[in-house]
Write a structure and sequence with these properties.
The structure holds 3 protein chains of 3 kinds. By secondary structure, chain B is of the alpha+beta class. Chain B is 35% helix and 12% strand. In chain B, the strands form 2 sheets. In chain B, strands 2-1-5-3-4 form a 5-stranded mixed β-sheet. In chain B, strands 6-7 form a two-stranded antiparallel sheet. In chain B, helix 5 runs antiparallel to helix 6 and helix 6 packs across helix 8. Chain C is α+β, with helices and mostly antiparallel strands. Helices cover 39% and strands 14% of the residues of chain C. Chain C has 18 helices and 19 strands. Chain C is globular. The chains are: A mainly alpha, B alpha+beta, C alpha+beta. Chains in contact: A-B, B-C.
Chain lengths: 221, 248, 671
């Protein structure tokens, strides 16, 4: 396995698999968030489950964190290796002539997403951890929705979230579809799979943006 | 037409290179890009300067020797051709043209625009063959029927001319398209099955050792490949590699 | 004048090769390990020979000027490779392939060699398929064949229009396997600059490392030259820019006889020259003549108007066009052999009917084919009363399916749409049938020095048939040379390693260095290309498609004068001890300047017309064949092998009489 992960293809597959895992997580996250714009109760209920279920908390959550960290670290490692593979740069390089902006700038869309994750952790995950595992505060199953609403009062934060989701979309636009190719999936279903991935890359981030905007507007009404 | 050429000049692998400007006039649209460089070189020689060194040989798009990055694209702005097939009618009077070598750490510059692509040879030597001796009594050629679709795909992969445009175009200087073309050719043929596991492992390993970057599926290689080698080959190599790793 | 010993084995034609293989000496495997062989050139012949010799156990060193063996110019062969497999069941056989090749070569090749070539042709296909060469296949999964070059059977195996590439990659992969085993040491970007003889035997080479400029010594028990043909003598040709005669010429200067240099093939369908900047001519596959009709305007005024750009070819009515091949050769029409088609095009252009700016082009017109295919297609796809536009569109689709890539290539180069306006074509130098004289074992007149592929003279006579060059290169490399060389090396098993610190190597190296110094010393007025272009002009105008005594004599003097001027006034910039392409070119052109003279001398000597060699003095005087080439079997049924004696014009002629025991000599007629 050590030898395997050293090879370029193994790394590429690892990136693809961790990415696919995160895509799956994103879908789940979005589903819960989405409930917040039409039912505070459903949202509270689901959030309460996720926040207190030991399987989620002590098994899935570490796996998720590992997946996130792995995807980022591997992304950085590959980026550095790839930059080194061309020691002298071109004086003129027309990257746009043969590849999309999204595919060429995964590191930047990824970095924005990483920065956003920092903000997001600061906003939700860290307070949550402190709440549960530092202060051992008593659980109130109805606290989630008001807390959520509160975060989207600020137009600046809402704006930051919206911008970040745009970058997430750019990242997914290339990353999701490309992960099929990385794991060797290229056959007669590829066109359909790619279409699905591109649709996902737009619909899910757009959904997150809608959720953020609706929450922001809800509060101000 | 009159043009300004910005050409990378570098004395040898050890020295520092730089872009040098050369104005040139009297260029006709019917000239090939390399013939335009011939004109420049003739002028440089007459002036007592050293001509620009570049690789070229067949000048009909098949040997894969020519390897120029023109205005930031391997083999220039046109598609499905090599530099030697690019004609000056693709440019217009007054244009400035950047001419650089294909750049990759694994392709060190020998002089000016000439690079060392022996890394490609070493990848092939690692396993890009079928181990069969020349005996004159191998089985009859028609004893191995091959499904036409596979035969055609194998041929399409085998048309790679080894020019290195895929590496030059790739933002990561990855050699996946080249390596996968060779792996695919044999993976698609029954003759190639016996050594399939060792072949893909050895060739990918050599590719990595040469210092090429990783594939990030930008697809630039496929667009710039003068022979239109498909990205499907990379997916096929990924599959073959995974299969071989799990087996080995 | 000595008699050359061709060492053709005794016995019936069909048994000669088998018998020969059974009786020649072999080297035992343990001894092969102690024997080194140098192979110069890594195209089809050199690559396949190197791989096979290494498989057998010899230590092989290969040399090529390209950066990789894979780039040798064999790669550019488009059409295919012949083999007497008779997979189509159309009556093909080894004998027929043999017969077609001898006849196509206008009875100027050796029967025994050609028969051997035809015999091993079938092994080549088996071998290449086993290596994974992706030949074209039918839907049933079996190999496809096409007919080529006007022969009566379909025996040509192909891989789209890239057969040479696929075969070369096959040979290259076989080499790679041996490189990995350590049995081949591959020296790329190296150029052989001399052959080293010790006690009369070839024992090594002097090579220049083209990257560092270093002069290197390499020793071996035998040297194989597979360095290709010399067509770049004409400057403009379909050869690669780097193709050269240097390796074989150096061997010639050291004692290898050069045979039939005047036999060169001029291919009728190339894209014409567009201007003085032209560096290279591009071939359009011969297959285009299956559907294209060749013509020029009937009236000179129309030709002039077309050249001036005042008239378009499509404006000329049918009766205003001269389909001169169909007119002169009603039986074969546009499908006459290469040499005939080329000469006919030249004749029309010389008479003032040429159709491009320079007046050196004829039309290859697909309008009739598009119309014909369009009507067929409309009928078979059930279109009733198709309009003219529909027919054209359908016809264009058919033509695109057949020749799409060629049409696209044409459009890229010429910037005209060949579906709408006729293509312009003109003949160009394409292949050299002449080369180093070799005996049946492919050994030159230097013991231990062998020549394979286009570098030797042996199999194509005075004219090569389509799809036969690939066959010969691989036959020599895979199946002939690796066996015959053992007969010689069997005597070398006790020789041991050949040292390179001997007076012979010292002397050869010194000569190479002196020559480089002399090339670099010229204070210089003109570039190397200036001389190469001038030489090309002399060759093309006076030793080209049609030759006569006066021109050839002038050419000999002009080339000698040009050579003298070259050595005085050539300008080679840069340094000798680094990468210096101008220096490489200078050395090659210096050799061409000698070969050119020998070429003209050989053409002058051969006062007959045969195959690619046409002497204006030797034409049929009357009858149906009036004006056509006249072969003279009584006086010229021999191989002209030239021995180096200083200046090329002093070369001494040796004759090898060609004996035809199995084939009756006939006049080629295409009327």
């Amino acid at each position: 396995m050590g030898g395997l992960i050293k090879s370029s293809i193994a790394r590429k597959v690892a990136m693809a698999l961790s990415g696919l895992f995160l895509v799956f997580f994103l879908l789940q996250h979005f589903t819960i968030n989405f409930t917040s714009i039409f039912s505070a109760d459903v949202f509270n209920e689901l959030s309460h489950f996720m926040g207190t279920n030991p399987l989620v908390q002590f098994a899935l959550q570490p796996v998720l964190i590992f997946g996130v960290v792995f995807h980022f670290v591997m992304g950085f490692v590959l980026e550095i290796k790839n930059r080194n593979a061309r020691a002298v740069k071109y004086a003129k390089y027309s990257g746009g002539a043969n590849a999309s902006w999204m595919s060429r700038n995964m590191i930047y869309s990824g970095l924005v997403t990483l920065a956003f994750l920092g903000l997001h952790f600061y906003d939700f995950w860290i307070p949550e951890m402190i709440h549960k595992y530092v202060e051992f505060a008593p659980e109130d199953p109805t606290r989630y929705y008001p807390e959520l609403l509160h975060k989207f009062v600020s137009p600046v934060r809402t704006g930051l979230y919206v911008v970040s989701f745009v970058f997430l979309a750019l990242h997914l636009w290339h990353g999701f579809a490309s992960s099929f190719q990385s794991v060797g999936f290229n056959n007669k279903y590829s066109v359909a799979a790619t279409k699905f991935a591109k649709a996902f890359a737009i619909v899910i981030p757009l959904g997150f943006i809608i959720v953020a905007l609706v929450l922001h507007l809800n509060h101000n009404h | 037409m009159n043009l300004t050429l910005k050409i990378w000049r570098q004395n040898d692998a050890q020295s520092q290179g730089k872009i040098v400007d050369y104005p040139i006039s009297g260029i006709e649209g019917d000239m090939s890009f390399l013939e335009m460089l011939d004109v420049l070189n003739e002028q440089l020689i007459t002036k007592g300067e050293e001509p620009v060194v570049f690789d070229h040989d067949c000048r009909e798009g098949i040997c894969g020797a020519c390897s120029l990055q023109i205005n930031g694209q391997p083999h220039g702005p046109d598609r499905l051709i090599t530099v030697c097939q690019l004609h000056m009618r693709s440019f217009k009077d007054g244009d400035t043209i950047f001419i650089e070598p294909f750049r990759a750490k694994a392709f060190p510059v020998i002089k000016d625009l000439m690079i060392d692509r022996s890394a490609f040879d070493r990848i092939q030597q690692a396993g890009g063959y079928i181990s069969v001796n020349t005996s004159g009594n191998t089985v009859d050629a028609n004893a191995i029927p091959i499904e036409k679709g596979n035969a055609d795909d194998a041929f399409a992969a085998a048309t790679c001319i080894g020019c290195g445009a895929c590496v030059a175009a790739c933002k990561n200087a990855s050699a996946m398209l080249f390596t996968s073309a060779k792996v695919s050719q044999f993976a698609l043929l029954p003759q190639g099955q016996v050594e399939a596991t060792d072949r893909v492992l050895a060739m990918v390993n050599q590719m990595d050792e040469e210092g090429f970057g990783n594939c990030t599926n930008t697809g630039a290689c496929e667009i710039e490949c003068p022979k239109g080698i498909s990205l499907e080959n990379i997916a096929r190599m990924n599959r073959e590699y995974l299969k071989a790793s799990l087996k080995g | 004048m000595s008699i050359l010993d061709s060492k053709i084995p005794e016995g019936p034609l069909a048994d000669k090769w088998t018998k020969h293989k059974n009786t020649i000496n072999l080297v035992n495997p343990a001894n092969k390990r102690n024997i080194d062989i140098i192979v110069v050139g890594t195209g089809l012949a050199g690559g396949s020979a190197a791989a096979t010799l290494a498989e057998l156990g010899y230590n092989v060193k290969t040399f090529c000027y390209q950066d990789s063996p894979r780039r040798a110019h064999s790669i550019a062969a488009q059409g295919g490779i012949n083999a007497a497999k008779n997979y189509q069941g159309d009556g093909d056989s080894v004998y027929r392939l043999f017969y077609d090749t001898v006849k196509g070569g206008d009875y100027r090749s050796r029967e025994a060699n050609v028969h051997r070539l035809a015999e091993v042709s079938t092994n080549i296909i088996d071998q290449c398929v086993a290596q994974g060469v992706p030949f074209a296949r039918e839907y049933g999964g079996l190999l496809d064949n096409r007919s080529f070059g006007g022969v009566l059977v379909s025996r040509t195996f192909y891989a789209k229009g890239q057969t040479g590439q696929q075969l070369l990659l096959g040979a290259y992969s076989a080499m790679n396997r041996q490189i990995k085993r350590g049995k081949i040491k591959s020296h790329t970007r190296h150029e052989m600059l001399d052959i080293v003889k010790i006690d009369g035997k070839a024992r090594g080479i002097i090579a220049r490392n083209l990257v560092t400029g270093e002069i290197e010594r390499h020793s071996a028990h035998a040297v194989v030259l597979a360095s290709g043909g010399y067509g770049n003598l004409f400057y403009l040709s379909t050869y690669a820019m780097g193709s050269n005669v240097t390796a074989t010429w150096k061997a010639h200067r050291r004692g290898a006889h050069f045979a039939n240099p005047c036999y060169t093939q001029i291919h009728p369908t190339c894209i014409p020259v567009s201007g003085d900047h032209q560096s290279k001519l591009t071939l359009m596959s011969e297959s285009l003549r299956n559907d294209g009709r060749i013509w020029v305007p009937k009236r000179k005024e129309d030709a002039e108007a077309i050249r001036a750009g005042k008239l378009k070819p499509t404006q000329l009515a049918e009766e205003e066009r001269d389909y001169y091949l169909e007119r002169r050769y009603p039986a074969f029409g546009n499908l006459v052999p290469r040499d005939v088609a080329s000469r006919a095009a030249k004749e029309r252009c010389d008479a003032g009917f040429g159709v491009n700016k320079t007046g050196e082009a004829v039309y290859l017109d697909f309008a009739a084919a598009i119309q014909r295919y369009g009507e067929e297609k409309a009928y078979t796809s059930g279109v009733d009363n198709p309009t003219k536009e529909e027919i054209t569109r359908l016809g264009e689709d058919v033509v695109e399916a057949k020749y799409g890539n060629l049409f696209q290539m044409y459009e890229k180069i010429v910037d005209e749409n060949p579906y709408r306006t006729p293509m312009m074509i003109y003949p160009a130098v394409h292949y050299a049938m002449g080369g180093l004289w070799v005996d049946y074992n492919l050994q030159t007149t230097i013991p231990g020095c062998y020549a394979a592929g286009e570098a030797n003279f042996s199999d194509h006579g005075a004219n090569r048939l389509g799809a036969s060059a690939l066959m010969q290169g691989l036959a020599d490399g895979y199946f002939v040379l690796p066996y015959t060389i053992g007969d010689y090396l069997a005597h070398d098993i006790r020789t041991g390693k050949i040292p390179t610190d001997t007076p012979e190597f010292d002397q050869a190296e010194k000569e190479v260095k002196d020559r480089i110094e002399k090339l670099m010393a010229g204070s210089g007025e003109h570039s190397v290309d200036y001389y190469h272009k001038k030489l090309g002009k002399i060759m093309w105008n006076k030793c080209g498609m049609s030759r006569n005594e006066k021109d050839l004599k002038e050419a000999i003097d002009e080339i000698a004068a040009l050579r003298e001027d070259f050595w005085k006034n050539v300008k080679v910039p840069g340094e000798a001890n680094s990468m210096n392409p101008e220096l490489e070119k200078a050395g090659r052109v210096a050799d061409f300047l000698e070969l050119g003279e020998l070429f003209a001398k050989d053409a002058l000597n051969r006062n007959e017309s045969c195959g690619g060699h046409f002497r204006e003095e030797s034409v049929e005087q009357d009858g149906e064949q009036k004006g056509e080439a006249l072969r003279d079997d009584k006086n010229f049924k021999y191989v002209a092998a030239w021995e180096y004696k200083g200046a090329p014009k002093d070369a001494q002629l040796h004759k090898e009489d060609l004996v035809f025991e199995n084939i009756e000599l006939k006049t080629r007629s295409y009327k």
